[in-house]
Amino acid sequence: MSFSRCSRRWIVLILLVFGCSSLASADDALYKDFGERPGLVRIMDDFMNNLLADPRTRPFFEKANQERIKAQLVEQFCELLGGPCKYGGLDMKQAHAHLAIRQEHFNALVENLQIAMDKHQVPFRAQNKLLAKLAPMHRDVITR
């Protein structure tokens, strides 16, 4: 059976349309795994509480505008997870340049994020997908 050039174009077009919609569904599924925006707000509330309770990270957050940081994290994570948000804050290099963050501080932050995600029963697979998206940022966050 041979396909005409026109038939092949339609097949390619159909595959692209359905392929893209399934990719959008996959991204949307990850966002939903985090409870969408309301879930992200709850996770960030607990995340900030964890950061303030941890002596390794408290100095970076106790005098900062915690509500603003949480709101920016919700926006950033929402965008990374395929949600409808657009992060409008500073890039990671600018935001962290003056903080003298070391690898151990960054590791503590990740631990505290994982604790918050576990508390809200974010599936382990979804946590790993988010952490994989965040991992490249460590080069801009660690400044010392």
Automatic annotation (TrEMBL):
Transmembrane segments: none
Taxonomic source organism: Pelomicrobium methylotrophicum
Binding site for heme: 96
Record protein name field: Group 1 truncated hemoglobin
Domain of life where this protein originates: Bacteria
Keywords, comma-separated and alphabetical: Heme, Iron, Metal-binding, Signal, Transport
InterPro entries: Globin-like_sf (IPR009050), Globin/Proto (IPR012292), Hemoglobin_trunc (IPR001486)
Signal peptide extent: 1-26
Any one Gene Ontology molecular-function term assigned to this protein's record: heme binding
Organism classification: Bacteria, Pseudomonadati, Pseudomonadota, Hydrogenophilia, Hydrogenophilia incertae sedis
Keyword Transport found: yes
